[in-house]
Amino acid sequence: MFKWLHPLAKPETLYRFCGHLFPWLMLSALTILLVGNVWGLVFAPQDYQQFDTVRIMYIHVPSALLSMSTYTMMAIAAFIALVWQVKVAQWSVLAIAPIGAVFTAISLLTGMAWGKPMWGTWWEWDARLTSQLILLFLYLGVIALYGAFSDRQTGGKVASLLAVIGVVNVPIIHFSVEWWHTLHQGASIMKFDTPSVHPSMLWPLLISLLGFYLLMLALVCLRLRTAILEHEQHRPWVRATLGGH
Amino acid sequence: MQFDSFSDFLAMGGYGFYIWLAYGLTYGLLVGLAGYCFWELKAFHQNFRQKLARAQRVKQYQEIEHP
Predict the structure, then answer these.
(1) For the Cytochrome c assembly protein domain, which residue ranges apply (chain A) (predicted)?
(2) Domain with B45 in it
(3) Which of chain B's residues have a Cβ under 8 Å away from the Cβ of A60?
(4) Rounded to an integer, what distance in angstroms lies between the CA atom of residue B4 and that of residue B21?
(5) Which residue among A134, A181, B44, B60 has its CA within the 20 to 30 Å range from the CA of B38?
C-alpha cells in the first residue's frame, strides 16, 4: 500500500490524482445523495413515536458521523505532517478543516430543528450537544490558528498540533451518550451488534451516509487542488499545466 | 409512497416547519460550501493568469528599454 501511496506525497502527482477523482466523486455524491434523501423524505415510513420528524435523521446522522470521521482524517493528516514533515499532508489539514466545520454546523443545526419538536427545546447543555459544539470550535480553532501566523509554515505546524490534540474529543462525543445522562439517544448503527434500525429506515440512512461521505471527499479533492496550486505556483509544472505557454 | 398529496408531503404531519428548516439549512450550507470551494479555485486561476500576463509585460518593456 505504501508503494502506491508514496508517489502521492509529490504535489504534482496528487494534483493530477485529485483532478481525475473529483468529477466521479462529485457526480456519484450528488446522485447517491438524491436517492438517499428522496427515499428518506418520501418513501421511508414514519416513526411510531417521532412521526415525520424522523426524516431529519437522513441528514442529521450522516452529517454527525461525517463531522467525526472528517476530524479523524484531518488529525491523521496533521500527525503525518508533524512527524514525517510531508508538505501535502500539511496542506490537506487546512483543506479539510472548513469542510469538517460545515458538516459539524449542519449536524448541530439539524439536531436543533429535531430537538425542538421532540425534546421541547432547541438546545440543552448536555454531554452530546456540548462535546459536538466543542468539535466545531476545534475546527474553527485550527483555521484561526493557521491564519494567526504570518509565516505559513509555523501556522501550519501549530494548527496541526491542535488538530492532533483535539482528536481526544472524537471518542468523547461517541461515548458521551453512555458515560453521562443525556437527552440524546444511544448509538443505533455504530455499535458492536446488529443495528437496531429497521431496514426500511436503515437503507435510506446508509445511502444518504454514503452520499455525504462522497461529497466530503469530492470537496476535499477540490480544496486540496487549490491548496497545491497556491503553494506551488512558482514551480515550472504549475506554469506548464495552467499557463499553456 | 408515504403521502397522499403534495400538500400532505409539505405539511409532514404538522412537523413541516422543522423538517424543511433542517433540510433547507443543510442544503443551503452545502451549496454555499461547494460554491466557495469552486470560487477559490477560480479566483486562483484568475489571479495566476494576471500575474503571468504582468510578468510578461514587464519582460517586454525591459527588452524595449535595454535591448
Answers:
(1) 6-184
(2) 6-65
(3) 22
(4) 22
(5) A134
